């Protein structure tokens, strides 16, 4: 049973009859629909003149984020290597998207699922995991990302549960090498492609897809983004590690930032391995408010509904495009859907507008009744 159904990507649509080509098929189960996400061109309302930017829309995955790939990667690898058996319990520490994806895989395959999650992350994510049958354990805000990781490890050791270890598990990057990277290579076959733009959460996408792209098209430049508030990679200082590769605690350069899903309070082992092997060619620090504004702009000018990290990635792509030679083509990773951020600053202005609208209604239609 494989999550990745191995569809052959089609060239860019030429007309109405090509719409959604490759997606309408019959599948054995939901996990087979993971991957083969589309790349969509960004209009000149956002893209600098004379350059072309495509957004790879990971919200086309069944649970609406890039992390569906990671869950497939880790669960299938554990099944193959005998680490997971029917009826087992899976545990993982996650800021949300991984938990939702792992919960989906567990629900579909009959495993029990326990997720540890640090307090500041959005309520929608927590609810979704519970809806998918997972048990969610909230860890204190003060312990940050490394606190929730320590809790998951403690539970796994105590109960003999399978721990995903998304930040260290090599299956994560390998899956991105096999799917995300190959998809881009297929989709851009015979086309110009100069830059691949993304940030890192675990670094699975950066390390895996980056490696696949560099192997086949060595001229492609990898452009890595990082929150300006949390310049971990930018500091040049590595995270200290336990013998199993996990970080011992918070990186000194970490500060809380609004780009959920990017840059935990440590440099993940997979990210470090990617930097050491494939590396990156360009680096863009991204202010949190710029990421939020770009995500709002993507919705209003393109109809592309992505989360804060999607805005961050597009912001980095636009900054890169401004400096890139005329004619350059860029692909930016948009990791998830904006729907996961309804209670976050991404929707702050909308929430304020709605309060005003309600006041307007109550003023103009005093007898209004439902
Ligand atoms: N954006 C969001 C919203 C995410 O949840 C993640 C994964 N944590 C990423 C980006 C980065 O993906 P990766 O783990 O492959 O680096």
TrEMBL record:
Name of the molecule in the record: Cysteine synthase (CSase) (O-acetylserine (Thiol)-lyase) (OAS-TL) (O-acetylserine sulfhydrylase)
Residue stretches making up the Tryptophan synthase beta chain-like PALP domain: 30-334
Region (Disordered): 1-23, 232-255
Species of origin: Durusdinium trenchii
Domain of life: Eukaryota
Family annotation (InterPro entries): Cys_Synth/Cystath_Beta-Synth, TrpB-like_PALP, TrpB-like_PALP_sf
Lineage of origin: Eukaryota, Sar, Alveolata, Dinophyceae, Suessiales
């Amino acid at each position: 049973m494989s999550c990745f159904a191995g569809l052959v990507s089609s060239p860019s649509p030429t007309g109405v009859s090509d719409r959604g080509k490759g997606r309408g098929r019959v599948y054995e189960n939901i996990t087979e629909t993971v991957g083969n996400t589309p790349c969509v061109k960004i209009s000149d309302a956002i893209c600098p003149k004379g350059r072309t930017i495509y957004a790879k829309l990971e919200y086309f995955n069944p649970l609406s984020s890039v992390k569906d790939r990671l869950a497939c990667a880790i669960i299938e690898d554990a099944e193959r290597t005998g680490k997971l058996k029917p009826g087992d319990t899976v545990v993982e520490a996650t800021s949300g998207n991984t938990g939702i994806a792992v919960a989906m895989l567990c629900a579909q395959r009959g495993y029990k699922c326990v997720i540890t999650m640090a307090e500041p992350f959005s309520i929608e994510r927590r609810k979704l995991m519970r809806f998918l049958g997972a048990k969610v354990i909230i860890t204190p805000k003060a312990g940050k990302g490394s606190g929730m990781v320590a809790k998951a490890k403690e539970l796994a050791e105590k109960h003999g549960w399978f721990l995903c270890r998304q930040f260290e598990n090599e299956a994560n990057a390998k899956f991105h090498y096999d799917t995300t990277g190959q998809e881009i290579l297929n989709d851009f076959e015979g086309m110009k492609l100069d830059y691949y733009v993304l940030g890192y959460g675990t670094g699975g996408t950066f390390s895996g897809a980056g490696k696949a792209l560099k192997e086949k098209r060595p001229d492609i430049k990898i452009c890595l983004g990082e929150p300006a508030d949390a310049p971990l990679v930018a500091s040049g200082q590595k995270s200290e590690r336990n013998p199993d590769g996990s970080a011992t605690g918070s990186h000194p350069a970490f500060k809380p930032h609004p780009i959920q899903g990017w840059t935990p309070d440590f440099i993940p082992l997979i990210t470090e391995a990617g930097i050491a092997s494939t590396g990156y060619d360009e680096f863009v620090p991204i202010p949190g408010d710029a990421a939020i504004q770009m995500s709002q702009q993507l919705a209003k000018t393109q109809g592309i509904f992505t989360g804060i990290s999607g805005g961050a990635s597009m912001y980095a792509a636009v900054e890169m495009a401004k400096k890139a030679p005329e004619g350059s083509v860029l692909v930016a990773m948009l990791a998830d859907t904006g729907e996961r951020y309804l209670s976050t600053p991404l929707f702050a202005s909308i929430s304020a507008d709605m309060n005003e609208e309600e006041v307007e209604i109550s003023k103009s239609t005093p007898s209004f009744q439902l």
